[in-house]
Amino acid sequence: MFETLLIANRGEIACRVAATARRMGLRTVAVYSDADAHSRHVAACDMAVHIGGAEPRASYLRADAIIAAAKQTGAQAIHPGYGFLSENEAFAQACADAGIAFVGPPASAIAAMGSKSAAKALMEKAGVPLVPGYHGDEQDPDFLRRQADAIGYPVLIKASAGGGGKGMRIVESSVEFDAALASCKREAASSFGSDQVLIERYLLKPRHIEIQVFADSHGNYVHLFERDCSVQRRHQKVIEEAPAPGMTEERRRAMGEAAVAAARAVGYVGAGTVEFIAEPDGRFYFMEMNTRLQVEHPVTEMITGLDLVEWQLRVAAGGRLPAAQHELELSGHAIEARIYAENPEKGFLPSIGTLDVLEFPDHAEFALADVRVDGGVRTGDTITPHYDPMIAKLIVRGGDRNEARARMLRALGDIRVAGLQTNIAFLRRLMADQAFAAADLDTGLIERRHDALFPPNGTLPDAVPALAAAAILQSQGYAGTAGRRSQTPSDPWDVADGWRVSGHHARIFNFLDAEGQPEDIELRRDGGQWTLLRNGESLALEWAAEARDTGGERLRVRLDGRDHAGDVLLAGETITVYLDGVSHILRLHDAVAHAQDEGGSPGGSLTAPMPGKIISVAVRAGDTVKSGDTLLVMEAMKMEHTIVSPRDGVVEEVFYQPGDQVADGAQLIAIAEA
User: pLDDT by residue (tens digit) across 494-506?
Assistant: First the structure.
């Protein structure tokens, strides 16, 4: 076994590998960029080496810098994690040439599976079923459009060298093909260094089922059952679970054997994932093989009781697989939810900012437990535009799927995040959704259940602004109605409860909800009684802080005799209220302080939703545009984002051109009324 391991990645996977390596007695080395100097993965390792700038191409994609760091620290092996260089054949070969063990498959296997087109040709020879499509090298746009026309719409364009939903588009008709192809190629070139694509028939109501495979250098192969990864947004997984609901033993065996055949066909060694698309009638087709550990590997660990990172390290050191196929068993059901810094209500737009608060329910970290959190960030860390916006993975296990789902709902409701938008409320709606609960799964579930998963904004419960206002008063020293002394003090000025000589006191709170809509309330104190006034109604109000069983305090308000308990996080002007498992974000609006902000920008301007780079501009000053017309495309968080016109009008000015970097909130285009 190795003595020192370098981890050529960042975030939660780097923390996870470090935890397993430490348990095995290995010393660990972190590499880090300018943006990650104080990150959690650096703190988790025994040593750390700086390798470059914040942009991945200046740091985590620099094979030379990573190998130099390994030599500098005496590391005998490099674990690539997932993403970045984990599926880079040149990096695997460079490690071998340097006499450093690469914790992954040989370069030849990565090369064989690295191109989706070449992999499909290889799988066809191995007898693995394929989706009808074009997987060749000819990349002329007209030729590719003709192939799509022959396959029949809808079709799926996919980056041959890609994964993770990048460089992928569904095309519904021939007239949409050229624009979708151009976008795919740009995104593929940016993410993977190759703009080659393939085209496949887009299956209706398919499920995404993948098989975890493992092999050693002694010719032993196993599969560790399946994972269902059907619930996706923008072709990226949101929920993963194991085993797949409704999976029969016969189909499990057939898919497992097909996955092992795929691994054997390329002389695979280490951990890999063979991904299949499955139709409702049970037919399944090979999609691709990811020659690395997957983000969703914890659900496999939970149902098998195995540490897959430990398996990786033992195999990379030349050991045999710790178990044979007949010794592997699955038990219970596991579900993983990816906690992202993003706004689902705005097309899952990533959210950039500082994690002012990050708290999880009672859990184990990087270990087998009923509730587990794999995370790479902490309170005070910043989610930057340079990397994926995932905050953590929440994994739960139950005796069956219903128990696991209920446990996930409870755990999601106990997470506390403040400082930026997250998808936690959306994940709770998804867990409770009728179709998900019934395991009516397919890759289009989120779109199919859109109205249920994205309900129209309802009336904010009175308890939310009441809790927010009470928390502000508490922070300003108000004792609350339950905080008054039982005996009359000698000096009334000793009690911070809003008392006035006149007997009357009023506070007005101007809140804005998450959509910027006003939620104004007034609190009045008459004698010893507080009253909340909202939308013309008056409610008797009491509030007090109370101790939690798990430590800390929570706030309780009583409105007209009804109790409501919740947690309130104050971060500057932002107030996050957690009530009944749902988080509500309010902003304390100071009309005077923000008056110049509201008047300083032209009403027809468009601003950047996050920091990024302009990829293309479709309009010029003087052009007439209609609502929904594409104005420009920008790249941020490794994805392309199309900016469209919100109204009919005339372009007054375009402030940026392709290649320009833009800051969050930068004015991109000004549009005047036609």
Answer: 555 555 555 688 8
